[in-house]
């Protein structure tokens, strides 16, 4: 099995994933590492 160190979420533009992201992070006790607003080169480190 492969361990999971954190969460990377893409395509946050125009979706309801944002709220679910915090619930998943809290439930699985994982950090949110990166986020993407929907463009190919827009992957950025997550900052609450």
Explain this structure.
The longest helix is centred in the middle third of the chain and has 12 residues, at 17-28. The chain contains 1 helix and 3 strands; from the N terminus they run E-H-E-E. The protein has one domain (6-45). The mean pLDDT is 79. The chain is α+β, with helices and mostly antiparallel strands.
Please render the helix and strand layout as text.
Blueprint: E1 6-9, H1 17-28, E2 31-35, E3 44-45
Parallel strand pairs: 1-2
Antiparallel strand pairs: 2-3
Structure characteristics:
single chain, 48 residues, alpha+beta, 23% strand, globular
Into which percentage range does the β-strand content fall?
15-25%
* Radius of gyration from the alpha-carbon trace, in angstroms: 11 Å
Q: Sketch the topology as an H/E string, one letter per element.
A: EHEE
Q: What are the segments in which pLDDT stays under 50 over at least 5 consecutive residues? A: none
- How confident is the prediction overall: mean pLDDT? 79
Q: Profile the largest sheet.
A: 3 strands, mixed
Task: Give a nutshell description of this structure.
By secondary structure, the protein is an alpha+beta fold. The protein has one helix spanning 17-28, and strands at 6-9, 31-35, 44-45.
């Amino acid at each position: 099995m492969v361990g999971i160190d954190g969460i990377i979420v893409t395509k946050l533009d125009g979706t309801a994933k944002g709220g679910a992201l915090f619930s998943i992070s809290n439930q699985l006790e994982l950090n949110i590492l990166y986020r993407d607003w929907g463009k190919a080169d827009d992957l950025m480190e997550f900052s609450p």
